[in-house]
Amino acid sequence: MTTLRKQPTRTCAACRSKDGKWTLVRVVRLPNGAGVTLDPTGKRAGRGAYICTSEACLTLAFKKGGLARTLKCQVPGSLEAELRTHFAGLPPAPPDVPETTPE
Ligand SMILES: [Zn+2]
């Protein structure tokens, strides 16, 4: 039995692991040099990058420059704090939710 997974996958800019779009947060480089901002809706125009909603990936994305590399531009350090605040406000991930339907 094949289970179709329609959820789009995105690659984390820090750990490069692929995950469902909804477990990653989108950061977008706005057009026309308008800067880089958090995009909680995932709908803003611009070049996007994704980061797992984990402290480890957040730190890595900034410290190792994965985020800047993915966006191909400078990322303001203030964005790290903004993301951290955003993560803190997210509902906790439900433990062990099966991704596939039981047979
Ligand atoms: Zn990650």
Distance between the termini: 8 Å
Let me know the largest β-sheet: 3 strands, antiparallel
**H/E element sequence:** EEEEEHHH
How would you sum up the global shape? globular
Radius of gyration: 15 Å
What is the CATH top level name? Alpha Beta
Question: Mean pLDDT score, rounded?
Answer: 87
Number of helices: 3
Please indicate the percent range of residues in DSSP E strands (runs of 2 or more).
15-25%
Overall helicity: 25-40%
User: What class, by secondary structure content?
Assistant: alpha+beta
- CATH architecture label: 2-Layer Sandwich
Strand order of the largest sheet: 4-3-5
Number of folding domains? 1
Low-confidence stretches: none
What is the total tally of β strands?
A: 5
What's the CATH H-level homologous superfamily?
YlxR-like
What ions, cofactors and ligands are bound? zinc ion
Description:
This protein is of the alpha+beta class. The chain has one domain (9-88): YlxR-like (Hypothetical Cytosolic Protein, Chain: A, 2-Layer Sandwich), CATH 3.30.1230. It has three helices and five strands, in the order βββββααα. It has helices at residues 55-63, 66-71, 78-88, and strands at 9-11, 18-20, 24-29, 36-39, 47-52. The protein has a three-stranded antiparallel β-sheet. Strands 1-2 form a two-stranded antiparallel sheet. A hairpin with a 6-residue loop joins strand 1 and strand 2 (18-20). Helix 1 runs antiparallel to helix 3. The longest helix is centred in the C-terminal third of the chain and has 11 residues, at 78-88. The termini are close together. The mean pLDDT is 87. Zinc ion (ZN) is lined by residues 12, 14-15, 17, 52, 57.
